[in-house]
Structure to design on (227 residues):
């Protein structure tokens, strides 16, 4: 009986030793495993902003600068209403075609203006008033030259026409800049195209009774606008 008890005690001791050794090997294995690295958090980087300012559509579109001054000598074609009134005084009336009528001494001036409070002259007709005399062609050309823009080309254009009227065709870049495109496209003319038309009176030996200068390239249409 004592031997059986001793055998059981020895068996229990052996089992305990084996369990202890097993636990020691498991702990060593766990301690030798490399630790798991924690993930690295990278903060977001700011987006670089361009230092160059953006241009607005208005600054990207270059627009031509309109001419601010007068195109012709005093009271000439392309000049403003203020300039005309400074030379001729206030208008005395208006024609059926809504041309303003000015009078100075023995000459009457009928003026077509572009819309606006101080619109520019696109047509000027010069006729003798009561007591005035018709012009010779040379004198009429000298009168018209006073009304034409300062930069007309060619300076001395060839005359064309018939026994009813004489026509001179010229262009002016200054007039085109001052008026813009619309007054020319409205009369089917290119920018800066204008005419000087001298109407003859066959009953007075072919003398000139009407001088008309204005935008366009059709003498008949220009005379119709001046009626």
């Amino acid at each position: 009986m004592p031997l059986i008890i001793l055998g059981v005690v020895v068996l229990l001791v052996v089992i305990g030793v084996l369990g202890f050794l097993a636990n020691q090997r498991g702990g060593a294995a766990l301690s030798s495993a490399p630790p798991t690295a924690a993930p690295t958090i990278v903060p977001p980087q700011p987006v670089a902003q361009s230092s160059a300012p953006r241009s607005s559509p208005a600054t990207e579109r270059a627009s031509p600068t309109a001419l601010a001054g007068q195109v012709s000598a005093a009271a000439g074609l392309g000049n403003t209403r203020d300039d005309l009134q400074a030379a001729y005084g206030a208008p005395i009336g208006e024609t059926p075609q809504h041309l303003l009528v000015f009078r100075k001494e023995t000459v009457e001036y009928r003026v077509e203006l572009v819309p606006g409070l101080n619109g520019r002259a696109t047509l000027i007709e010069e006729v003798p008033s009561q007591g005035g005399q018709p012009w010779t062609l040379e004198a009429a050309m000298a009168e018209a030259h006073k009304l034409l823009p300062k930069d007309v080309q060619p300076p001395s254009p060839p005359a064309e026409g018939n026994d009813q009227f004489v026509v001179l065709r010229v262009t002016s870049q200054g007039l085109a800049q001052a008026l813009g495109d619309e007054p020319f496209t409205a009369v089917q003319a290119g920018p800066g195209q204008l005419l000087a038309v001298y109407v003859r009176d066959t009953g007075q030996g072919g003398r000139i009774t009407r001088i008309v200068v204005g935008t366009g390239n059709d003498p008949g249409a220009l005379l119709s606008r001046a009626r």
